[in-house]
């Protein structure tokens, strides 16, 4: 989505202004390339934005999930419950830590982790639940918190889709014990690659800062300030640092988040209205208790209506220059999970059935009015055409 042919409208695209470029150039001319003052500044800015006590920057959203699970002490043999409908990075991090992913199904309509399906999966080895705010719709955190408390397990929010969202007036980023964001160019803010974990727990934040720097208790800048060469590696960590260059970009991008969120919601409203009278498709449902962050706009094709075929609709839209996509192939259907954990079809029937019907429609703040109209017209035309041709063939 960072590069595409000029006539294709991608499903997502970053937005960069001259002030973003200037912010990066300023760091390029400074003494700090990697861990310098911009890291702490970006962490503070994002923590304040969501209203969290602590934020820890990491080199990607994936590194952020990994660090979050490390901070919670997830280790070999620990079971972690996660939805089947998510990106592989969510559950890969469980495996990085030697844990066992346990796949829970989602609610029809919203495709969010179904609180009613979790308790049957809890065992004495369960250590955490990961809620994924799929498409930018915050999960039902009151219900999930209740389950987590009753069973004494941690609650994790993979909020990579949901920066700027709210649940019952509370900000995403404050709703779980650890809350994960990504700054991949398709997401709300772009730092090239990058991620962040927000938490109310200073101990978790400290563990994640150590984890991103090889398990060393102090970072280079702290040692320079203290005039000492001495350091101790107290646990096994990684190099998961986010650079000053990237953090400067993140700080600059964050200033524009409110206006970009407004634009994302406006485009979603246009789609809602445009698709309302099309029986061939159903947009995902939205709870009145949330403010949706609209990372993605996902529609479900009503396959019972004239045997609309997702593969053919996908191809027809691509041919018209509409960069539709599919988010996601259920994680438990991937060969790695089938082979390593014996997962497969039937484990999460709602997620699997939705996968067969879903398409992600282009949505990004830089979309022009003309592009929104083009997307809507093409989708309307293609689904009606396929609906009719199938109906007349049968
Ligand atoms: C993007 C994403 C991630 C990973 O983020 P990266 O920055 O690409 O590593 C994790 N979980 C979900 C749900 C995502 O969408």
Automatic annotation (TrEMBL):
Keywords: Aminotransferase, Pyridoxal phosphate, Transferase
Active site: 187
Coiled coil: none
Pfam families recorded: DegT_DnrJ_EryC1
InterPro entries noted in UniProt: DegT/StrS_aminotransferase (IPR000653), PseC (IPR020026), PyrdxlP-dep_Trfase (IPR015424), PyrdxlP-dep_Trfase_major (IPR015421), PyrdxlP-dep_Trfase_small (IPR015422)
CDD domains hit by this protein: AHBA_syn
Modification type N6-(pyridoxal phosphate)lysine: residues: 187
GO molecular function: glutamine-scyllo-inositol transaminase activity; pyridoxal phosphate binding
Transmembrane segments: none
EC number: 2.6.1.50
Family: Belongs to the DegT/DnrJ/EryC1 family.
UniProt name for this protein: UDP-4-keto-6-deoxy-N-acetylglucosamine4-aminotra nsferase
């Amino acid at each position: 989505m960072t590069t595409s042919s000029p006539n294709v409208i991608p499903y997502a695209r970053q937005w960069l202004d001259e002030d973003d470029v200037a912010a990066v150039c300023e760091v390029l001319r400074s003494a700090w390339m990697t861990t310098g003052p911009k890291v702490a500044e970006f962490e503070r800015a994002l923590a304040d934005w969501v209203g969290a006590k602590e934020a820890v920057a990491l080199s990607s959203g994936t590194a952020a999930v990994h660090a979050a699970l490390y901070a919670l002490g997830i280790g070999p043999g620990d079971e972690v419950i996660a939805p089947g409908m998510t990106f592989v990075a969510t559950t890969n991090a469980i495996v990085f830590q030697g844990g066992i992913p346990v796949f829970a199904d989602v609610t029809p309509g919203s495709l969010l982790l179904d609180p009613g399906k979790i308790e049957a999966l809890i065992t004495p080895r369960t250590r955490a639940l990961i809620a994924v705010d799929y498409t930018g719709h915050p999960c039902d955190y009151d219900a999930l918190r209740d389950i987590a408390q009753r069973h004494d397990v941690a609650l994790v929010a993979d909020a990579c889709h949901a920066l700027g969202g709210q649940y019952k007036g509370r900000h995403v980023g404050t709703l779980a014990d650890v809350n994960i964001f990504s700054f991949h160019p398709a997401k709300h803010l772009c730092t090239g690659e990058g991620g962040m974990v927000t938490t109310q727990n200073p101990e978790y934040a400290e563990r994640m800062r150590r984890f991103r720097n090889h398990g060393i208790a102090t970072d280079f800048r702290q040692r320079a300030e203290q005039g000492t060469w001495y350091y101790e590696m107290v646990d096994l960590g990684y190099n998961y640092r986010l650079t000053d260059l990237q953090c400067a970009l993140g700080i600059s991008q964050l200033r524009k988040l409110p206006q970009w969120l407004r634009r994302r919601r406006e485009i979603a409203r246009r789609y809602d209205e445009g698709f309302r009278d099309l029986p061939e498709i159903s947009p995902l449902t939205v709870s009145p208790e949330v403010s949706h962050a609209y990372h993605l706009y996902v529609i479900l094709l009503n396959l019972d209506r004239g045997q609309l075929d997702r593969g053919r609709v996908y191809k027809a839209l691509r041919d018209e220059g509409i960069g539709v996509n599919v988010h996601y192939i259920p994680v438990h259907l991937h060969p790695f999970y089938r082979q390593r954990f014996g997962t497969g079809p039937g484990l999460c029937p709602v997620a699997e059935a939705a996968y067969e019907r879903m398409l992600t429609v282009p949505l990004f703040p830089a979309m022009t009015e003309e592009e929104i109209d083009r997307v809507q017209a093409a989708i309307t035309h293609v689904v009606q055409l396929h609906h009719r041709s199938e109906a007349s063939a049968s």
